[in-house]
Amino acid sequence: MKRLLLLIMLGLSLAHLQAQEEPRNWTVNGYVKNMQTLLFFNDAYPDLSQGQLVDTFFQDNLIHSRLNFRWYLDKNWTVRADLRTRVFYGSFVQATPGYGNLVDDANNDYFDLSQVILNEDAWVMHTMLDRLYAEYVNDKLEIRLGRQRINWGISTVWNPNDIFNAFAFTDFDYEERPGSDALRVKYYTGFASSVEIAVGMFDDFNEATIAGLWRFNQWSYDFQVLAGYTRGDLALGGGWAGNLGGVGLKGELTYFLPVEEQGDDAAFAATLGLDYSFSNSLYASLGYLYNSEGGIRNSITGLFSFELSARNLYPYRHALFVQSSYPVTPLFNAGLAAIYSPVDVHALFFNPNLTYSIRANWDLDLIGQISFDQEAEGYRSPLQAVFLRLKWSF
Asked: Which of 23, 35, 93, 267 has the fewest CB atoms within 10 Å, counting from its CB?
């Protein structure tokens, strides 16, 4: 497997170098990113040698490259293969035993399409095919087989309808989002309507996800309804997107009912969002999430380690989201997002960001993640992170 992935990476790189020779039926693009990270733990890092939480500081680094390959066999058939390669190094990697295995375990679906190429005390190199599928398109019919993104979500931050491949808002460096090994069949019944059936690969039916989605337009709104089975639950949900005056209005909800009486409790997740662009180019959005699986007393540090799924999209039962962004100049953008959970610990999460376009295909980002929760003595901030990222796209 290791040799196969290395050969694929080399082949795609050579393909890019030859991209301008003559007309072809394939394309290659991608990016390379370098990100420096500073992590500050305030009585929040578990020191195994002392058996307690301690203060500490880590400096970490990530080199992240991506190659996106498309092969157009004819007017109906396309093959897609996207290779994601990351090199982690620094003090946080060194302080985390088995870091390479943790990264590898968190990035696969049914098939093992990844490889830890380098796994040293302070260095880890991991590569994976996070998209690998064949697609057939003929008029109103689309069929995809392989690792793909089944994007059933509508809302900006939380997606209860995204039962195949949920994602976390805090994972900002993975803009493509996770994929699933699945078969998806979509048929367009009209200009703005379609029916879709998707089946994820599985060995044990308790791990299966099989569902259908119906999209349609009514009263100038896009609606969708989904029903299916996912990992031991019957799922029924829906969503909508449209405008209320000049304000964008989006919402999603899904109810999860366990098939086995001895299984998990029923769960319900719902989100509502508003967004508006002002005449001066200021963008603002508001959102709310109700998550029945969320807690009310757990520490904010769980925001980065909880078990993410469509039935549990956030560590807390309630969450309020606010975001704004403004283009200070055509090349410089500033933004801020905040999430407040009105539960016992009154958890707060701040996400400021600055983006500067250095030149064509070159971007520089400065991003912060600051968390707070409340204890008897008042608010505390157990974890702060600062990220400086340089990205070149080709």
From this structure: 23
- Summarised one tens digit per residue, pLDDT across range 124-169 is 999 999 999 999 999 999 999 999 999 999 998 999 999 999 999 9
CA distances from 149 to 85, 166, 175, 253, 379 (A): 18, 10, 12, 20, 39
First to last CA, the chain: 27
Q: 103, 113 in Cβ contact below 8 A? A: no
Sign of the C-alpha dihedral computed for residues 143, 148, 153 and 154 taken in this order: negative
CB–CB of 117/123 below 8 Å? no
How far CA 372 is from CA of 18, 44, 139, 348, 383, in Å, comes to 50, 12, 52, 5, 8
Rounded Cα–Cα distance for residues 83 and 68 (Å): 7
Please tell me the distance from the alpha carbon of residue 275 to that of residue 109, in angstroms, as a whole number. Answer: 33
Return the ∠ at Cα 130 (arms to 127 and 135), rounded to 5°.
Answer: 140
Its pTM stands at 0.89
Segment (H or E) for 341:
none
Residue position matching structure tokens 């769960």: 267
Q: Which residues of 49-80 are buried (b: 16+ CB within 10 A; e: fewer)?
A: eeeebeebebebbbebbbbbbebeeeeeebeb
The token pair at 325 is: 């962004």
Residue 237, token pair as written in the block: 């949900």
Locate 223 and state its tokens: 């609606």
